[in-house]
Amino acid sequence: MSVAPSGPSASFLAELERHREALSKALQGGRGEAPPPPSRSEVLASIENIIQGVIKSLARNEAPVLILENRSSWGNIKFEDSVGLQMVSHCSTRKVKSDSAITAQKFALILKMLSVVYKLVQSNTYATKRDIYYTNIQLFGNQSVVDNIISDISCMLKVPRRNLHILSTSKGLISGNLSYTEEDGTKVNCTCSSTAVAVSPNIHGIRNLITDAKYILIVEKDATFQRLLDDNFCHKMSPCIMITGKGVPDLNTRLMIKKLWDTFHIPVFTLVDADPHGIEIMCIYKYGSLSMSFEAHNLTVPAIRWLGLLPSDIERLNIPKDTLIPLTKHDQTKLDSLQKRPYIDHQPFWKKEMEIMAASRMKAEIQVLTSLAPDYLSRVYLLNKLKFGGWI
Which parts of the sequence belong to the Meiosis-specific protein Spo11 domain (predicted)? Predict the structure, then answer.
């Protein structure tokens, strides 16, 4: 592979423009539009309906029961290429009974959380999941309990979490050719430098987004993201936006990428490890996750393309064998699961790459490129990939 020039070439910009136009045409053919968000009064009414149901059961001397959609069953999922994984309208459910030793505590916690949400929406104030957890540590036990109950309520009410007035502390970082204004009026400039900006905890409130970026690069891991910042990658080829969810992405990072795509419709590429875990992370950005399939319209970006690290790159670049890692049993299980996902048949090139990984029984982290040269990732690999259209 030859070394690319340090500046943006006409062929590079032309290739990105062709990619952008192809994505625009695909959009014109129909894409999954998110339903309009519910108003505050609609959210309050939905909660009131739940509580009224509980009161009516008590009035009949019956033990109240809450019905929750099963968010962990692939049987409740359908796949649409324009949206990704989404929950079917009539899915299997589970009962949370108030008189069952197994579910009584969860029943009580859901009612408690509905009370918290009702007060937040009614007063038009916001709280983070962490804030809620620390209001009663003994009651909730741990943070994951709060997180799961909030997701269950969001699914039960058919209301995006941001409309419950509950925010998450962001773990993602963003840098590059982008500026915007937060809901409170704070102006944010993400100009690429040695530091990055934390992804906003309130993506819905962001406005006045401005960029000259030609593409968005999603980076799986923070270490790779920081290395690209140190190498000043954003300015080497063409204006771009870089973002990382530091592994499995949090909700805010996914919402931010969705907002950038909906606003600018510029190409979106992913840079992940050539292993089953990296591929699954990329699939979450592109097609969504099982547990959050009920909110797919607000989170997925099916236009995302896989830039690297491709399993086929390992042999093509003559990566030293001693830098590769054998697939573990867990990796094999994950890879088998990915190959059976409903979206893989729609991505024959992705399927081929996974077959290469399965046949070699080896995986590679992005860092293996340093075995070719310390700055090979930013100086050669990414620049040539972008310049010559090396994505799938």
Answer: 3-35
> What fold does the segment set 169-388 form as a domain?
Dna Topoisomerase Vi A Subunit; Chain: A, domain 2 (3.40.1360)
Q: Per the structure block, which two tokens stand in for 163?
A: 């409309």
Closest CA to 171 of 84, 277, 253, 276: 253
Q: What percent of the chain has pLDDT over 90?
A: 54
Phi, psi of 6 (to 5 degrees): -75, -20
d(Cα 389, Cα 392) in Å, to the nearest integer?
9
CA angle 366, 189, 167 (to 5 degrees): 80
Residue 136 phi, psi dihedral angles, 5° rounding: -160, 80
In angstroms and rounded to an integer, the radius of gyration of the C-alpha atoms of the chain is 23
Q: Sketch the domain layout of the chain as residue ranges.
A: 40-167, 169-388
**Distance between CA 282 and CA 249 in Å, rounded?**
9
3-state secondary structure of 171: coil
Q: Residue 299: which of 257, 339, 362, 236 has the closest Cα?
A: 257
pTM across the whole model: 0.86
Asked if residue 268 lies in contact with residue 261, where contact means CB atoms within 8 angstroms, the answer is: yes
CB 246 within 8 A of CB 172: yes
**Contact (Cβ atoms closer than 8 angstroms) between residue 271 and residue 137:** no
d(CA 94, CA 66): 8
The domain over range 40-167 is classified in CATH as 1.10.10.10: yes
Please indicate whether residue 126 is annotated as part of the active site: no
Give per-residue pLDDT as tens, 119-144. Answer: 999 999 999 898 999 988 888 888 99
Terminal alpha carbon distance of the chain: 18
Contact 218, 268 (CB under 8 A): yes
Catalytically annotated residue among 118, 133, 134, 287: 134
Sign of CA dihedral 153, 159, 164, 169: positive
Largest CA distance in the chain: 77
* Span 254-275, pLDDT tens digits: 999 999 999 999 999 999 999 9
Residues 6+ apart with CB under 8 A from 28: none
Number of residues that this document lists for the chain: 392
